Amino acid sequence: MSFPQYASAPAPKRPMGPHKKAGLVTGGVFLGLVIIGAATGGGGGTPIATPVAVTTTAVEIPAAPIDTPEQAATTEPAAAPTTEATTEPEPVAEPTKKLTVAQENAVEKAASYLEFSAFSRTGLIKQLKFEGFSTKDATFGVDAQKANWNDQAAKKAAEYLDFSSFSRSGLIRQLKFEGFTTKQAEYGVKKAGL
């Protein structure tokens, strides 16, 4: 028993990948430049002085040849690229001040207080002085925190409202008693919702 023979369908063509397309485009550009070069270079005209560079991504087109002396006089040469660095000099770092042991301890103590509770600047200085730090060291330790005292007032207002009820004016008075300025106290109370 024999089976009928069927003509096989031709295999589908696979699309060209981007690297083959780029090769075809580059080859076409190169061939075109060769033809142009042969047409202009073999005829007795002025030879092209600028070399033609062909790459896979860009083609530099040579400048048109200068035929007359008038054109030569009006054509300006291309500016050479500058290689000077235009970066500004880096600022010289100022020598860091060595902290005393008391200053280091005041910085650490102020940071530890701010980790568990909100303070005003003056309230935290008073607390460090109560701990035995000198006014100078306590002030240094508090200022080294770079704290946002408005945010501290808002946190302190929230702390008070968590355990007791206050009127707006009463909470402002309490925050001012804690050492916050009037503006800081008003900001804190407003952030707390009063």
UniProtKB/TrEMBL annotation:
Stretches the record annotates as Disordered: 65-93
Superkingdom field: Bacteria
Keyword ATP-binding: no
Coiled-coil region(s): none
Keywords: Lipoprotein
InterPro entries (UniProt xref): Ltp-like_HTH (IPR011434), WH-like_DNA-bd_sf (IPR036388)
UniProt KW Lipoprotein keyword: yes
Gene3D superfamilies tied to this protein: Winged helix-like DNA-binding domain superfamily/Winged helix DNA-binding domain (1.10.10.10)
Ranges for domain Putative host cell surface-exposed lipoprotein Ltp-like HTH region: 103-143, 148-190
Protein name from the UniProt record: Host cell surface-exposed lipoprotein
Species of origin: Actinoplanes italicus
